[in-house]
Amino acid sequence: xxxxxxxxxxxxxxxxxxxxxxxxxxxxxxxxxxxxxxxxxxxxxxxxxxxxxxxxxxxxxxxxxxxxxxxxxxxxxxxxxxxxxxxxxxxxxxxx
Length: 96
Prior knowledge:
This protein has helices at 16-37, 65-72, 76-79, and strands at residues 2-10, 40-47, 53-62, 83-91. By secondary structure, it is of the alpha+beta class. Strands 2-3-1-4 form a four-stranded antiparallel beta sheet.
């Protein structure tokens, strides 16, 4: 199993927050399923200085990059053009 850090920025146009809010319920439902399956480790919204959501960061665990990409292919924030700049990095968790 590999861990992956996803850093995803929303669009910056005037409709960006509206798209996020329209897709949010489905995104959170999917994250809940990923949590139950053991894929979601942690995550949340990135905020600007005024507290407005402008992106997301997630720490995920999948058997490999192919499984991660299969999730991304179904991710509502990508399908509904919320995330416009997504970076995925393999992640090595520090040992306690």
